[in-house]
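Protein record
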Amino acid sequence: MMHQLFSQVLGQRDLSRAGDLFSLEDDEIEDCLSQALDQIKTISCSPDYLTNDNDQAVVEICVTRITTAIRETGSIGRHSTALVGLWESCLEHNLTPQAESAEDTPHAKIASDITSCILQNYSCPSVMVLAVPVAVRFLQRGSRELSRNMSSYLSLAAIAKADLLAGHTEAVTISVLNGNHMLLRVLPSVYPRQPDTIHRHLDDLTAMMSQLESPEQQHLIRLIQMIAEQHPLMLSPQVPVLISYLGQQALTEALLGALVDVSQASPSSLVSFLPTLRTVGQQCPSFVGHVVKIHGAVGIISEVHAHTSLLYLVALLGSMEHSFHHTLLLEIRALTDRYPSLLGGTGKDIYRMSNSFSAIARVLERWLDEKSACRSKSLALNAARSRSVHSDVWDDGEGVELSPDISLLNTLPNQLAENQEALSTERKVAADGVPPDPTLLEQGVKDAEKGQREEKEGKKEEQEEDDRLFLHLRDNMEKIRVFCKDTKQQIPIPEHCVIEDSSRGCVAKLSFSCPLKGHYCLYAKSCFNLTSRQPHLWIHMLLLHLQSKSSIPLCTKDVCIQRLASLWEKTQLQGAHSFSMAMTQHVTPHRKDLNNLQVQLEEVRFFNLFGYSEEEGGWLCCMCNNPEKATVLNQEGQPLIEGKLKEKQVRWKFIKRWKTRYFTLAGNQLLFRRGKSKDELDDFPIELSKVQSVKVVAKKRRDRSLPRAFEIFTDSKTYVLKAQDEKHAEEWLQCINVAVAQARERENREATTYL
């Protein structure tokens, strides 16, 4: 049965009593919420509702009261049928305002309030089953705000239960193509269940990349990566468009990875774009590995294509650094195994010499050097043919011009072109039947044996040279050392870091301790803990600190770096930037970011408890930094500080006043008396070991003075106190923080002793 007040307000449309609904306890009306929602649906669907201001006001107030009660009682599952029924009924009415600046229509207001309630409970399965189909219908209706809220809900639903959205993939994709780019994040979640639906719209989806903001591009890139991994042939027609996006540096690495997958399934689709890809590799050497793999895939098509790819790959052997030799030789061997005549029949002999790739590289280079004796004669006899082949190597097709983010070179370096011409001639000599020098092969065996011995020693070096992070740290060691030296007295480095999820995203849980751990140390057996919403910045600082302590460049194989990479991955969406990519964007953080870290440390009063010690070369707690003060502060029975403070009294929600109390900080307690004098009786202790944190009350934007008020949070109550002035407030804050740290440390010692 409906509550009497609800019956009166809804039955008689009594606006004068509608506000009284908020005086009722949530539990009083929880049983009748579904009935009230059904009656609201009847009222809102009446013919005169759009012109009846009284009815609209009654409905708006009642919907707000009902959604509040549902939230407070956690009864969304019980009332979801009626709630979604009212929500769905709004679709039968106009939801679009007449003008851009006009306010929402009456039914749009109802829909918005219900959307907010459903959003708060997006992970409830019983609600999702009812709400997702209705939310999809809202996508093409109503205001931008309503559509944006629906997109947020569907994005969250896709994370919690993608199966429910899979049946609506077509509607979601159409909404994306119509400009609702927020929903792009849904497509990777539903793709494994509805690939054909997305394949039908692939042309339009890939074409919209340039219209998107960076976060939206990352969701589309993730979708493209999934398609390349699972159905690479579907991307074959999109190759020209994808190639055109390579100039956007934020997309290059991911797109090249997708193109490698496409080249394995459809190598012919990449033939015309080899010159463009070579230019990308030349401009950004870190991407050469991808370009090499694509050349290897294209070379498998035919002996002509293999010959063209080999000329490029072998030229790189002579011009690229050692770190790329492993990948290059794998592709070279794959092509020469497929088409043995390309090496004049000597390929098997060369590869049998050793399992060492570095030794094979030396044999190939020596063989090419020995063949130079035949080169002059061959150049004269085959000049025309050589020029023709040379032209083929660098003119595979039109290619696609890169966007302006990466400047293009019209010609390749002269040295690389000379290498190509020489190699082209060598290959012709071999093809014409000129055998390799036997002494060369004999020498090659010796080199291979030597190479095998060196292989184990050089293995770590090879891995490092192929390591983007290693190269970055190696090239910037001095900058990093100077940066850490300049900032070590401004920003402390945490001893421990953990990444956790919160309602507002990933946070870093940081722990700081005192390395000296003296007799009166505040953190001998505990830590100062800080929660930061800037995990990426702290991880970068940790990396720089580790590198500054090392005399050699760190690499991704080091355990400490692997741990940092693991932390980084916990902060990232799937398919986002890798740890190495992110850490190599900038050598050091920007000054603004460092200032933000200092502000955060100040807000949690870190600098009240710690100070940098030149003598120790690190951050010590204030007791270890000032042992002479510690002796005074720890005298038995002596108050650390005492005096008058004002305590905020809250009687009703909007009635607040300050009451003067006399406070004494001594031992493990903060004592206060009801009166203004220390002689008045009735001590009310706050146990310092139960204090969770002490924080400054947020200042108003226009108030640039130091704070006078601060809060003490315990496990059962919050105290808001105000000092006489800023100086006294700072003094109280420092003393309370020190006393709290001492109390915790004392408690930890007692627990350790007991154990």
Notes: The longest strand covers residues 641-652. The chain is about 55% helix and 10% strand. Residues 726-754 form the longest helix (29 residues).
